[in-house]
Amino acid sequence: MKKIVAVSTLALLLAGCNPGEQGAEDATKTEDATKEKTDDNVAQEDKKTDAEVAKEKEAEEAKKEADAKAAADKKAAEEKAAEDKAAADKKAAEEKAAADKKVADDKATEDKATEDKATEDKKDDGKTTSSQDPEPDKKSEPESETPDVDKSDTKADLGLNELVVVNKKYSLPIDYKPSDLVVPDISFSYSGVLEQSYMRAPAAKQIEKMFAAAKKDGVTLNAVSGFRSGQRQTVLYNNYVARDGKAAADQYSARPGHSEHQTGLVFDISAPSVGNGLTAELGNTKEGKWIANNAAKYGFIVRYDKGFQARTGYTYEPWHIRYVGVGPATQIKNNGQTLEEYMKVGH
């Protein structure tokens, strides 16, 4: 072995080469080859990275476009849903408004029919015209006053409280209004609460008892008109005078300030059997007879009873009940008196 190495070395020396230099040269070549190979690998890797980056960038751009399209589609869908909802809400509101209008129109028609029927019931065709008549349908020149109309105007004594007398002679201030008006818990001939739905509290309590007792006896009563202001009475009275003449109007309607309704102690009541009309026919019904026989038990009198016109100044009104208290009402009924006779005053 030593001989082979020595021969190789000798061969190199003969060729003019230094063995150490040859080794260094070989090492250098090997290093360069390795470096060249490494550079090729790096270039290859760099090339691969650029492609991947480009691909990733392309994918990212595609994702952005997809996301943008999805967002636009979502927004469009939301806007469409909002438009559809707005359209549906608008349609529902229009349908509700139409339905409400129909209900209101139907009610107005029904109320008008009821009012027309009540008007027919109250016309003077053998029935007494009521101070609750609607606007007049005809006009005539006022006539002369009848002899029983007292032209004096004495102030009513409000200190008498439930026994205050208000008639053709005794009047209230035109703007008088009781301070204790309430709506009694009874059945009415109309819906809603109007000025005429009120009554003074003590009388309201008693009329509630009266209506409950009537119902228990199988009698249906409906309240028509309670408190009436002086201003309202002025309008009504003037209408009746224009329609029927003063002489006729004074037989059934009070002059402004002279109406018992203004005391808050009166209610006109009727029954379905006469169309809830304020008519003398009520007196012939079981409801009218029940009122005449039982009202005094609760403190009420039929203020303008049959055959009392010369003593009260007004024609028969079986519907017009006046609160005076149980004691006075019982005495007035039992004695066949008028309120004026009981209080010893004129009319």
Topology:
Elements lengths: L1 H13 L4 H104 L31 E2 L14 E2 L9 E2 L16 E2 H16 L5 E4 L4 H15 L1 H7 L13 E5 L15 H9 L5 E5 L4 H4 L4 E7 L2 H10 L3 H5 L4
Parallel strand pairs: 1-2
Antiparallel strand pairs: 3-4, 5-6, 6-8, 7-8
Helix pairs in contact: 4-5
Question: Can you summarize this structure?
Answer:
This protein is an alpha+beta fold. It has helices spanning about 1-15, 20-120, 200-215, 230-245, 245-250, 285-295, 310, 325-335, 340-345, and strands at about 155, 170, 180, 200, 220-225, 265-270, 300-305, 315-325.
Structure description:
The radius of gyration is 53 Å and the shape is rod-shaped. It has nine helices and eight strands. By secondary structure, the chain is an alpha+beta fold. The termini are far apart. The strands form three sheets. The protein has a four-stranded antiparallel sheet with strand order 5-6-8-7. A two-stranded parallel sheet has the order 1-2. Helix 4 crosses helix 5.
